Amino acid sequence: MRDATLILGESARESLAWLEEEWQRVYSRAGKGKGWRSFTLIRLLQQKGICQTELHAWQVLEELGRAELIALPAGVLLSPRAKLPVKVELSVARREALMSASPALDPRLGLESGQHSVWRRAQEGPLGDWSIEDQLALADGLRRLADDLPGAYQLSPYVASARYLLGSSKLLETLPTELVRSFGIEPDSFQAAETWLLASVPEQPEGLLLIENAQSFSQACRVGCGKRLALICTFGYGLSLANALNNNEDRVQLVGQGTAGVTLADLLRLPCPTYWGDLDPEGLRIYRRLRHFLPELALSALFGPMLAALESGTCHPLDALTGKAGQRTAGDWQHGLDQEWLADDEVQALAGKALAPSVQGELMERISQ
């Protein structure tokens, strides 16, 4: 049989190649193909620079239709004269060829029909670098965990993850939620873990300062901030205050100077709560997450000299050597400054004060880009 693509003009061949690439991309992620509305497709062909004008795009669709490389409703032939609002698909033959060329999931994974598409999406994302052996172990662990429900829901997500998923306490939390749920596992149903937070509380605190990292918490205590402010170390994302608040505030235990008889709820009611962390996108995302539970929380004035230093060139790249390789980007934000950089006298002078609202707004807008 003669290859129909051989008789196509250059624009029609380029259009067909783009349609097939888009179809295969969607198929590999969702386990099903893609169709287009004719008018949408006309605009896309122009936006991609494949067709220079609307007339040119309709001529290309007419050419692909006559070559039976696209599928249209019965009796329809698109042309510049018949600009019909219809669904356009690749022909059955082209779709079958693309399906056969798509790499199949390893049958040893033992996936059910509803799990294929989400596993394929995970392979294109977080599982992209995993060996097939590790993927097989993960699939087996998810099935064993599902088989032990609902009893396994009595475990914390960290314990359940470590016992069932390759010995990792973090996988259950970091795997795509849709992948976990495709095995019949509801991540939010596990027992909330008890959380211990490091704190320093004076007899009559004037306010509350949340500090991201333990070294800076120690610095704030050393320079005397804990004599007038309640200090809490939030430990970033790992054992964070936000995680504790999201689960159950009653399961949070405070440890440290002056914490006897004081609860987290007591401290969260203190006036003028502020947050101090690393000046990078993730540090500010931690603040944004905390503010979801504590709306009156403001960025600390301690960010002021850090921001001035960052803008003057005192900063580090967000990469593996600086421990920031996993950071999600935010616009053109490529460098950061860790809170440990701040000098003792500045910590002593600025702790308890809030950054100017206009500067806070600018910083939060930057991480939203």
User: Can you summarize the main beta sheet?
Assistant: 6 strands, mixed
Low-confidence stretches: none
Write the H/E string, N to C: HEHHEEHHHHHHEEHEHEHEHEHEEHH
Helix coverage percent: 40-55%
Our count of domains comes out at 3
**Overall outline:** elongated
- SS-derived structural category: alpha/beta
Overall pLDDT confidence? 86
Helix count equals 16
Order of strands in the sheet with the most strands? 7-4-6-5-8-9
The gyration radius over C-alpha positions equals 28 Å
- Per the CATH scheme, the topology name of the largest domain is Dna Topoisomerase Vi A Subunit, Chain: A, domain 2
In whole angstroms, the N-to-C terminal distance is: 52 Å
Classify the beta-strand content into a percent band. Answer: 5-15%
CATH architecture of the largest domain: 3-Layer(aba) Sandwich
Q: How many β-strands, per DSSP? A: 11
Q: How would you sum up this structure in a few lines?
A:
By secondary structure, the protein is α/β, with parallel strands linked by helices.
